[in-house]
Amino acid sequence: MRARHRVRELAQRQGLRLIDQTKLVTAVSELARNTVVHGGGGAMRVGTIDNGSRVGVWAEFVDDGPGIPDHQQAMREGFSTGGGLGLGLGGARRLVSEFELHSAPGEGTRVRVVTWR
C-alpha cells in the first residue's frame, strides 16, 4: 500500500493524467507484489525525473531472490510461476512508458519503470 500511495503522490505532483497515474500505480503494485512473493522481499526506490523536455515518475524494485532464468517467457502473456493469471511482468510493461528488467538465476532481479507526462 505504501508503494501505491507514494507513487500516486509523485505522479500527481508531476502532473500526470489520471489514466497515467492509475496505470503507473497498477504496475507498481504488481512489481512490489512480485518483489515480495517471488524475490523474498527487497527494496523499492521511487522518484521524479525531468529530462528538460518532459517530466515523469520512476520506480525501481530490487531483490536478492532466485532471479528469472527466461526473460522472454516471464514477459509472455499468461505465463505464471505462482499460479496466477500471468499478467505480472508483461502487464506492468504495457502500463508504463519505459520498462527495464535485469535478472539472472541466483543473482536476483531489478526492474525499473518510468511513466512520462
Briefly, what is this?
The chain has 4 helices and 4 strands. With 117 residues, the protein is of the alpha+beta class. It has a single domain, classed as Heat Shock Protein 90 (2-Layer Sandwich), CATH 3.30.565.10.
Would you write up a description of this structure?
The chain has a single domain (2-116), classed as Histidine kinase-like ATPase, C-terminal domain (Heat Shock Protein 90), CATH 3.30.565. The protein has helices spanning 2-13, 18-37, 71-75, 88-95; strands at 42-50, 55-63, 98-103, 109-116. Helix content is 38%, strand content 27%. It is α+β, with helices and mostly antiparallel strands and 117 residues long. The chain has a four-stranded antiparallel sheet, covered by helices on one side. A hairpin with a 5-residue loop joins strand 3 (98-103) and strand 4. The model has no long low-confidence stretch (mean pLDDT 90). The radius of gyration is 14 Å and the shape is globular.
Q: CATH homologous superfamily - what is it? A: Histidine kinase-like ATPase, C-terminal domain
CATH class: Alpha Beta
Q: Mind telling me the C-alpha Rg?
A: 14 Å
Instruction: Give the helix level as a range of percent.
Output: 25-40%
What structural class do helix, strand and pairing data support?
alpha+beta
> What string gives the helices and strands in order?
HHEEHHEE
